[in-house]
Amino acid sequence: MVVALVGPLVNIVLGIGLLILWRSTASSTGISHVLAQDFGGAGAGYVLQHGVPMGNDGLGLGLLLAGASQLYLGVLSLVPLPPLDGGRLLFALGPHSLGWQRARHYLVDQNVGLVVVLLLLVLPLGGQLLLLQVLDSLLAPLLRVLLGV
Question: Could you please report the per-residue DSSP string of the chain?
Answer without folding.
Answer: -HHHHHHHHHHHHHHHHHHHHHHHH--TTSHHHHHHHHHHHH-HHHHHHH-----S-HHHHHHHHHHHHHHHHHHHHTSSSTTSHHHHHHHHHS--SHHHHHHHIIIIIT-HHHHHHHHHHH-EETTEEHHHHHHHHHHHHHHHHHHT-
